[in-house]
Design goal:
There is one protein chain. By secondary structure, the chain is an alpha+beta fold. It folds into two domains: 6-12 and 50-143 and 416-503, no CATH class; 172-298 and 319-410, Transposase Inhibitor Protein From Tn5, Chain A, domain 1 (Alpha-Beta Complex). Helices cover 40% and strands 18% of the residues. The strands form three sheets. A nine-stranded mixed beta sheet has the order 7-6-2-8-9-13-12-11-10, with helices on both faces. A three-stranded antiparallel beta sheet has the order 1-14-15. Strand 8, helix 11 and strand 9 (272-277) form a beta-alpha-beta unit. The two termini are 36 Å apart.
Amino acid sequence: MKRISVKQSHSNTTRHRNKVASRHAMAGHWRTQPKPMFGTGRVHYEVGTHTDVMSYGGMGAVHRLMTKLGLPKTIDATLQLLKVHLPYHESDHVLNLAYNVLCGGTRLEDIERLRHDTAYMNALGADLIPDPTTAGDFTRRFGEADVVELMECINAVRPSLWRTRARDLLGPVAYIDVDGTMAPTHGEKKAGMDISYKGVWGYAPLIVSLANTKEVLYLVNRPGNATSHQGAAAWIDAAIDLVQPHTERLCLRGDTDFSLTAHFDRWAEICDFIFGMDCNSALRNRAEALEESAWRRLQRPHYETQTGQTRQRQKNEKQRIVKERGYVELELNFEDVAEFDYQPTKCQRPYRVVALRKNISKMKGEQALFDEIRYFFYITTRRDLSAAEVVCCANERCDQENVIEQLKNGVNALRLPVYDLISNWAYMVMAALAWNIKSWFALMMHRLSDRRQYIRMEFRAFLNRIILLPCRVIRRARRTTLRIIGYQPTLDRLFSTWCTIERTGFT
């Protein structure tokens, strides 16, 4: 079969795009149709024998990126879990679990469909891939030190991407966000689980992420009764060491649980931070003692859409129902900000504290029962930001909740398919690798705007646009060709990214 050149591929893509565009151009010009657009559904099924086709056309480019980054070699050189390789290596197992997620799998059993897809295995150059039982057994080989080694293997390949493709995104300030979450268990026999303060049984993972690229740097599994900040300082230190050489300025962010004052002086020497502070009596007394002239009205920013237009707020339907039915609710009237210096007990120097004062009315229907004042505090080393900007920067940390939500419901990294805490931790890290691969693939895109868009993109949307593309797999003596079947609007992104991967030399 004749090989199609890159130029011809782009030409074919344009031709398909024009065909689709010509159909869409008819919108609004149709006359009344006697029949629905969808036809009778009458089709004929056949099973071919000579055509090797799969529905994961984007996986070829993804796997090429992994091999060029050297991730399989790094894993095999570092992770020693198998005494013999009959036939699989450690990297085979790790990539098998990550790729299962990238192909839309939500559980270990979904690997079975990939094991019977010869086109999929041919596209990855594999004669065989581990079955679900073997994959589960592999997670049970991990000890705590092994999981840490796996995370460091993944982190070892990041710098080559950051140096070449992420410089614009990591400057002028790189933000490391840290937060804890809950991974509920639904059975009674998961070893290592415990009950949280909210009464939920399960595990309490710690997530340390890079806000600029949405990458998960460290994911640490803990019993369900662990506090959010338990053991967090060591992982924050590791994240600082990882990111700091690749950015001009580094800033840590976290909520009140991560205001680890015993570490403030040490962190202040090497980076910036913005943490929430509990509203204790000392801070509240300082805020209440401020002159009224020290307070400034906080104006929240108006966010714009990608089109550059101001986002129009819709009517609050919930609030309308609450008022009509006379329910008691809290209504924010306005917010003020002020600042002062404060030295925590465990610190040797004072830090800037920004106080946020909220004026809140307790309402019943349309009637105001009474007003109250609530204080929120943020401690920071940042002197280059106004008090209002400190508040907004601290609130932007909440975007990490979107990353955590994607880990839970997009990637299903917190699904807990195996027995105990450590093996589930290993699975979390390998599944979260799929999320990181999405970010890495986005970094390889040509346009900065595309990189930002795909980094922020939901995981399932990424799969539909880049991964789940039907293609024909053509194997030759020295080359495997993935010939995309049909047209998708994102094909130009896939082709340009693949070309960038091929010509980029990672060091």
